[in-house]
Amino acid sequence: MSARGKGEARLDDSYDVIVVGGGLAGLVAAAELGDRGKKTLIVDQEGEQFLGGQAFWSLGGLFMVDTPEQRRMRIKDSLELARIDWMGSAQFDREEDHWPRQWAEAYLDFAAGEMRPWLSGMGMRWFPVVGWAERGGAFATGHGNSVPRFHITWGTGPGVLKPFIDRVRAHEAAGRIRFAFRHRVTAIDKKAGRIAGISGDILAPTSVARGERSNRDVAGEFSFRAENIIVTSGGIGGNLELVRKAWPRDRLGSPPGHMISGVPFHVDGKMIGIAREAGAATINEDRMWHYTEGVKNWAPIWPEHGIRILPGPSSMWFDAKGNRLPPPCLPGFDTLSTLRYLRGTGHDHSWFILTQKVIEKEFALSGSEQNPDFTSGKWKEVLKQRLGKGATDAVEAFKRHGEDFIVRDTLDELVAAMNALAGEKLLDPAHIRAQIEARDAQIDNPYSKDAQVTAIHGARAYLGDKLVRTAKPHKFLDPANGPLIAVRLHIITRKTLGGLHTNLDSQALGADGQPIDGLYAAGEAAGFGGGGYHGYNALEGTFLGGCIFSGRAAGRAAG
Ligand SMILES: Cc1cc2nc3c(=O)[nH]c(=O)nc-3n(C[C@H](O)[C@H](O)[C@H](O)COP(=O)(O)OP(=O)(O)OC[C@H]3O[C@@H](n4cnc5c(N)ncnc54)[C@H](O)[C@@H]3O)c2cc1C
Fold first, then answer.
1. pLDDT per position as a tens digit, 175-221
2. What pLDDT does 149 receive?
3. Is-contact 16 40, C-beta < 8 A?
4. What gap in Å lies between CA 70 and CA 235, rounded to an integer?
5. How far are the Cα atoms of 407, 438, 503, 507, 527 from residue 550, in angstroms, in the given order?
6. Are strands 183-191 and 194-203 parallel, antiparallel or unpaired?
7. Which DSSP string corresponds to 483-530?
8. Is there a contact between 249 and 469 (Cβ–Cβ < 8 Å)?
9. Best of 19, 41, 54 to mutate for ligand 1, by most ligand atoms within 8 A of CB?
10. Three-class secondary structure of residue 138 per DSSP
11. Which regions of 253-383 does DSSP assign to beta strands (E)?
12. pLDDT digit string (tens) for 535-548?
């Protein structure tokens, strides 16, 4: 029985395929289904204003290999190099990594081949300076990108969504695709052992702005029939309870008592459990990707809203007691090694200390709304923000309003304010000073014994970093480079690396490893393909990329 809200009467009871989740993965799948003439319903628990899910908020960075953008920046990349990097990062070591490994191989082929021309054919374009995320910092066989591969899409997240939303809306206009917003799926229904449809709650209408917490008031019930269901419901990062439950204590220590959330409230992870109740297996749930450079958003949109700093390599990183973090725990080098190290310190926060010169060139903030210049897609805005005086407006706003930012002229004043903010005198000013002075003494030569200073020189050998991302090495304690800035950093949740186990057609697999007829999963809910195609570590830009690739596979196979 269906009980529908006003305005939903046009919805039919039965479809060829139902897509659960109107984020990027669901939209890509639906666009492909529409192209194949499949009668499709997209169901989402949020209102229409949320269409696009997390991808709307994203920076729009895509992992691609050996592209014209890279070649123009004199980057020599290849499928072989990317494969070494991916496998060195993934460190697949489990029996259930069979399909994740297949997905990783398939995505690498896609990222080095069809991906860019296919997306470009749909109108997508990329900022010419390719970003160098997750640089690794240990051996060539270990984690990290050997070369820059993070392609920021013009228009950021909304620019990634646009071609797929356009395609889906065209199918909607032609009557092939329908949306059911404010429909929260609570069950995947079966009949005689086969997938038969979905059912759940109709949630009360909401007028909150995109990303804000909407109500969960139940106004009715629904059920729709379809023999093919694609689950594209996202990960668990907005559900701190689930994150703590799945936290890999053996590898990362205890979960932080205090965390902030890098994703909206709707990333609640519940649908993964619902798919499991229908027989789908989940794997690698203990693999997750949370950042260590989170700051509290001074103008929060969703609960516990945190923003990730995308740091260049120069900020000095100290633990809560003022000890400098050892390599490879350098800013932007190795996310999970840093998380592991910090969890061993017994404190939830850490600190960056930097200068005005560093913040101006090196601080970027993740998210479409924090980068209105890239999001606008206008060169004039980008040049003004990135090459003009001072840091970007968004970074300056954090400096002024963010509770985690401290700006002072002298180190003694800075450390006193850091202790005051922490509420405890954990930092010894003399100890901090000694470490900064020693580091500053390494700046006089174009080489150094300090791994971070060496890394700064290495970064500046890449044209893109030299141009817009890495400050010229300078002494932090020289007042000419000041004022000094300290930033208190929190652990910020983001991505779920494990999830629903799938084969290369995005078919969900049961506990016996066999496909469940009619059940598919893609995007973050499926660990971006296979149930965890990143293995233990991600190279960045592989989340949106994985949604596109696995969503496409689901949309081409289902129904
Ligand atoms: C600030 C930010 C910056 C990012 N930057 C990047 C980047 O630069 N590069 C990159 O690769 N990745 C980035 N990411 C990650 C990337 O955006 C996400 O991993 C990706 O968009 C997930 O898409 P999805 O379609 O799998 O899920 P989602 O976007 O989470 O969509 C899932 C949808 O399912 C709905 N849903 C869930 N459960 C139910 C249910 N029971 N019933 C009905 N509907 C349900 C939700 O309401 C939601 O709309 C970023 C993420 C954020 C938040």
1. 999 999 999 999 999 999 999 999 999 999 999 999 999 999 999 99
2. 98
3. yes
4. 31
5. 45, 49, 10, 10, 10
6. antiparallel
7. -EEEEEEEEEEEEE--EE-B-TT-EEE-TTS-EEEEEEE-GGGBTTTT
8. no
9. 54
10. coil
11. 260-261, 282-283, 288-296, 306-310, 316-319, 350-355, 364-365
12. 999 999 999 999 99
**Residue to mutate (ligand 1; options 543, 548, 549; most atoms within 8 A of CB):** 543
What region, left, alpha or beta, does residue 535 occupy, with left being phi > 0 and alpha being psi -120 to 50 degrees? left
Question: What predicted TM-score, i.e. pTM, was given to this entire model?
Answer: 0.97
- Distance from C-alpha of 441 to C-alpha of 323, rounded to nearest angstrom: 18
Question: Which residue's structure tokens are 């090694």?
Answer: 337
Query: 61: helix, coil or strand?
Result: strand
What pLDDT, on the 0 to 100 scale, is given for residue 4? 46
CB 312 within 8 A of CB 360: no
Helix (H, G, I), strand (E, B) or coil at 460: helix
Place of tokens 């186990």: 501
Reduced to 3 states, what is the DSSP secondary structure of residue 344?
A: coil
Query: What does the alpha-carbon distance between residue 459 and residue 453 come to, in Å, rounded to a whole number?
Result: 10
Burial of 367 (0-12, 13-18, 19+ CB in 10 A): buried
Supply 222's token pair.
């629904």
Q: For residue 245, count other CB atoms closer than 10 A to its CB.
A: 12
Percent of the chain with pLDDT over 70: 98
Ligand 1 atom at shortest distance from the alpha carbon of 44: 44
- Å from CA of 234 to ligand 1 middle: 5
The backbone region for 156, taken as left when phi is positive above 0, alpha when psi lies in -120 to 50, beta otherwise, is left
Compute the distance from residue 235 Cα to the ligand 1 centre, in Å.
7
* Structure tokens, 556: 């081409």
CA geometry: angle at 535 spanning 546 and 253, to 5°?
Answer: 125
CA atoms within 13 A on the CB side of 431: 11
CB atoms within 10 A of CB 548: 26
Q: Which residues pair with 488 in a beta bridge?
A: 351
**To the nearest whole number, what is the mean pLDDT of the chain?**
96
- Torsion over CA of 539, 544, 550 and 554, rounded to 10 degrees? 170
Residues having CB within 6 Å of any atom of ligand 1: 20-26, 43-46, 50, 53-55, 57-61, 184-185, 232-234, 262-263, 266-267, 270-271, 366-367, 495, 523-525, 541-545, 547
Scan for tokens 């289904």, then name that residue.
33
- Please report the sign of the dihedral spanned by the C-alpha atoms of residue 441, residue 442, residue 443, residue 446: positive
